[in-house]
Design a protein that fits this description.
This protein is of the alpha/beta class and 411 residues long. The protein contains six helices and 26 strands. It has helices at residues 5-14, 150-158, 197-207, 222-235, 253-259, 311-329; strands at 21-25, 38-39, 49-50, 54-57, 65-72, 86-90, 102-105, 109-111, 115-118, 128-129, 140-142, 163-167, 171-176, 181-182, 193-194, 211-214, 238-242, 263-267, 271-272, 278-283, 301-307, 338-343, 354-364, 367-372, 389-393, 405-410. Helix 4 packs across helix 5 (253-259). The two termini are 27 Å apart. Bound molecules: adenosine monophosphate and magnesium ion.
Length: 411
């Protein structure tokens, strides 16, 4: 049965559970997905401190002269507390000495021998940062499912953590099939082309946070296809096969996957480009012994995508179906970001399939527009260059005119 894009995506996501968590040191946690909520163990900042280099004082009017009795430096608080008629030198981030309730910046005093004269009035609480102004002890500062970026890693450090529980990174194996495929840079014989799906799919998978393994192109022979997929299934959580998935006499991918115990979940999506897309799963026995070397854990399902060989189809079907799976495996939100946009050019009717039109987006005075990137054939990979999104155009009997509103999934 041919599924719609949404149905196919639901089938994929229905098979996915997040991978196990592992503790990752903060300096390696950026780009990983959090598998726990993070609760601050203490206040941030932990103590009352100065926002400026200057002098800790009691509020006083301009002209007041104060005796300087000590210094509080960052990491080295003043041993003496502040008395009446006194000031204590204080650095940014240094603890405000006991008794002081304001900090006068160095630019606002005249510094004399052992004393300072206030050049302006100074108000209660000026330039003082209280404990917990950023984060309170016990507060949840980061939530499970968050992709960790620079700020998140910094906040975790402030919250008292040295490691974070993150979902394991999915292992992806890419198997490209085709007798015609030659390595990039190789001279081409008659009927040969340069292999590109291995590269595009690897880059797309890596961008989701996965670790990727690729092999040389696999010839269109049953035994070679079987062996390549068998090896891929041994270590990978997700296998991306490209090409050879159709029903021609030299298409061996589906047959090999069936023989390897991968159960078909769907075959064909009502989509252009990307109709001949196959998806299946294999549940590993709990004592399967696989998973050595950081690969898939026993007891988990392996996901297998048989993606069409046409270069645009391979990328589009990855984005629509494999990408959500790789995000969900990490415990991240698999939902594509969507925007509405106004078509700049008409889209020809396609009665039986939705279209994923590669578009560039532009913000104009009258709203956001989407312009197709150029010729949209499934072999015209240049249509992906500079594409900011896939305009999802539903199947229709009539042309979608310029000016129509479309949903665009950002890529
Ligand atoms: P297939 O799905 O194997 O029938 O291939 C469909 C089209 O995609 C053919 O024109 C292939 O030459 C092309 N193709 C298949 N695999 C790749 C690849 N890895 N890189 C670039 N083009 C490919
Ligand atoms: Mg082929």
């Amino acid at each position: 049965m041919t599924l719609s894009i949404d149905e196919a995506r639901r089938v994929v996501l229905g098979t996915v559970a997040p991978l196990a968590g592992e503790d990752i040191p903060l300096d390696r946690a950026a780009q990983r997905v959090l598998a726990e909520d993070v609760v601050a163990t203490g206040d941030v900042p932990p103590f009352t401190n100065s926002a400026m280099d200057g002098f800790a004082v009691h509020p006083a009017p301009a002209g007041t002269v104060l005796r300087v009795t000590g210094e509080s430096r960052a990491g080295a608080p003043s041993p003496v507390s502040l008395g009446a008629g006194e000031a204590i030198a204080v650095a940014t981030g240094a603890m405000v000495p006991e008794g002081a309730t304001a900090v006068v910046p160095i630019e606002r005093v005249e510094v004399g021998e052992g004393e300072v004269r206030l050049a302006a009035d100074i108000a209660e609480g000026a330039n003082i940062r209280g404990p917990g102004e950023d984060v309170r002890a016990g507060q949840t500062v980061l939530h499970r499912g968050t992709r960790l970026g620079a700020a998140e890693v910094g906040v975790a450090a402030g919250a008292g953590r040295a490691t974070l529980r993150c979902t394991r990174v999915p292992a992806v194996a890419i198997v490209v099939t085709g007798d015609e495929l030659r390595a990039p840079g190789s001279p081409l014989g008659p009927g040969q082309i340069h292999e590109s799906n291995g590269l595009t799919l690897a880059a797309l998978a890596a961008a989701t946070g996965a670790v990727v393994q690729r092999t040389d192109p696999v010839p269109d022979r049953r035994d070679a296809t079987h062996e390549a997929l068998r090896a891929a299934l041994e270590h990978a959580d997700v296998v991306l096969a490209s090409g050879g998935v159709s029903v021609g006499p030299h298409d061996h991918v589906k047959g090999a996957l069936g023989a390897l115990g991968v159960r078909e979940r769907f075959w064909r999506v009502a989509l252009r480009p990307g109709k001949p897309t196959w998806f299946g799963t294999r549940t590993e026995p709990a004592d399967g012994g696989a998973g050595a070397g950081g690969g898939a854990a026993a007891g988990c399902a392996r996901l297998v995508f048989g993606l069409p060989g046409n270069p645009v189809s391979a990328m589009v079907t990855f984005l629509l179906f494999a990408r959500p799976a790789l995000l969900a495996l990490q415990g991240a939100d698999p939902t594509a970001r969507r925007v509405r946009a106004t078509l700049k050019e008409p889209i020809a009717a396609l009665p039986d399939r939705a279209q994923a039109v590669r578009v560039r987006l532009e913000e104009t005075a009258t709203g956001r527009t989407a312009t197709p990137t150029g010729p949209q054939g499934s072999h015209q990979l240049r249509s992906m260059v500079g594409a900011q999104g896939l305009a999802i155009v539903p199947a229709a009997e009539e042309e979608l005119p310029a000016g129509a509103s479309v949903t665009v999934e950002l890529v």
